Amino acid sequence: MPEGPFPEDSAEAMVSAFITLVTDVDRTPAYRARLERSTGLALPRSAISIMFVLHRHGPLGVKEIADRLGVEQSTASRQIRPLEEHALVRRDVDPRDGRAVLLGLTEAGEEARERVRQLWLRDIATVWRDWDPEERERLGALLTRFRDSYQKLRADRGET
């Protein structure tokens, strides 16, 4: 496997375009306004990411949240604050260590996360409404394969 630079090719351009789309789409003011209308809350992008992490992985400590987001623990703590202010997360004693705290989504947090998810699903449905079912299936399979291969690479390098 090459370690240095390699020639541009269409696969690199496509992956780069997809990653740019995924990371930049919710940075526009218009999209942020749509998210705010869907949840009824002015939540920073990072808070939304935390809600999805907590939904997927269950109650977690601040350090575990930070690790999953790839940020410092102090950054994660700041990003959690708006969720606490809106009562979207709760703090519970960690049953494994009574001195530690686990954060979990409240019912209101789950509802807000689901409204964001529904907004995303509507957007995806709109984007590919003219696609054949086979094209959608193929995209899903290829993205899953790409994710799995990338995770394996990271695990092989000890980066997980």
Commentary on this structure:
The chain has helices at 10-24, 29-39, 45-57, 62-69, 73-85, 107-127, 133-156, and strands at residues 89-94, 97-105. It is 66% helix and 9% strand. The longest helix is centred in the last third of the chain and has 24 residues, at 133-156. It is globular. It is mostly helical and 160 residues long.
Strand order of the largest sheet: 1-2
Roughly how many Å is the radius of gyration? 18 Å
Ends: how far apart?
20 Å
The fraction of residues assigned to DSSP E strands is: 5-15%
Write down the overall geometry: globular
Give unreliable regions as ranges.
none
Largest sheet: 2 strands, antiparallel
User: What would you call the structural class?
Assistant: mainly alpha
The tally of strands reads: 2
Mean pLDDT: 87
What's the tally of helices?
7
Measured as a percent range, the helix fraction is 55-70%
Element order, helices and strands? HHHHHEEHH
Keywords:
mainly alpha, two-stranded antiparallel sheet, single chain
How do the strands and helices of this protein lay out in sequence?
Elements lengths: L9 H15 L4 H11 L5 H13 L4 H8 L3 H13 L3 E6 L2 E9 L1 H21 L5 H24 L4
Antiparallel strand pairs: 1-2
Helix pairs in contact: 2-6, 3-5, 3-6, 4-5
Short description:
The protein is mainly alpha-helical and 160 residues long. It has helices spanning 10-24, 29-39, 45-57, 62-69, 73-85, 107-127, 133-156, and strands at 89-94, 97-105.
